[in-house]
Each structure stands twice: as C-alpha cells, then as structure tokens.
Write a structure and sequence with these properties.
Blueprint: H1 6-11, E1 19-22, E2 26-30, E3 38-44, H2 59-76, E4 83-86, H3 90-93, E5 102-106
Antiparallel strand pairs: 1-2, 2-3, 3-5, 4-5
C-alpha cells in the first residue's frame, strides 16, 4: 500500500488549501508555489502514487482529471487563450509528491515545453 501524502490530508481537509473543486473522485486546489497566474493541482481522491501505478479500474478517475481541468480552465478565464496540463512521473520526470497530480497552468504564454 502506498504511503499517505500531504495531498491525502488536503482531500480530508485536515490541512488548509485553497480548494477550487471537489467531488467524490477528485480534488483541485491552488498550488502554493504558482508558476503562472493560474496554477491549480488536480488530484484523484484515491492515492495513486505515479502514472506507473494507474490500473484499468482507475480510468474513470483519470478521465475526471481532464473534465475537471476543462471546467476550471473555463472558470479561470484561460480556456480560450490556452493552458498546459502537466503530469510528472518519478524523479527524472520531476515528481515531488507521490500522489499522482495534474498541474493546470495558464494565464500567460508558457513558452517551450522543455528547456535544452
């Protein structure tokens, strides 16, 4: 079983966060260290450590990450100009918290995907 993370405590409201959306499958909250004017983390309420741990039974929740991202992008006013969705996996991918999460970032031009 995966270890509990800080995100698990945010889901249960044991620690404060600026939650912008929550339902039975996912929770979304503002990143405490935003990289763009809009920077929201969207996470499954079920603890799935990395994308390598996603199973067929997780397809509904993984799809919900995308539909919630669209909803939030519209609410944030960034859907028309565009935004980026980022999911990091393991150390080389830049993952810091081992509870799968999608970064929704936008509100300004974001530049190239990767730096050389």
């Amino acid at each position: 079983m995966a270890e509990e993370t800080i995100f698990s405590k945010i889901i249960r409201k044991e620690i404060p966060a600026d939650v912008v959306y929550q339902d039975d499958l996912v929770t979304a909250f503002r990143d405490i260290n935003p990289r763009a004017p809009s920077h929201v983390l969207i996470i499954p309420n079920k603890l799935i450590p990395t994308t390598n741990d996603v199973e067929a039974e997780d397809e509904l929740v993984m799809g919900r990450l995308f539909t919630v991202a669209k909803k939030i992008a519209i609410e944030e006013g960034i859907a028309q100009d565009g935004y980026r969705l980022i999911v990091n996996c393991n150390p080389h991918g830049g993952q810091e918290v081992y509870h799968i999460h999608m970064h929704l970032v936008g509100g300004r031009p974001l530049g190239p995907m990767l730096l050389s």
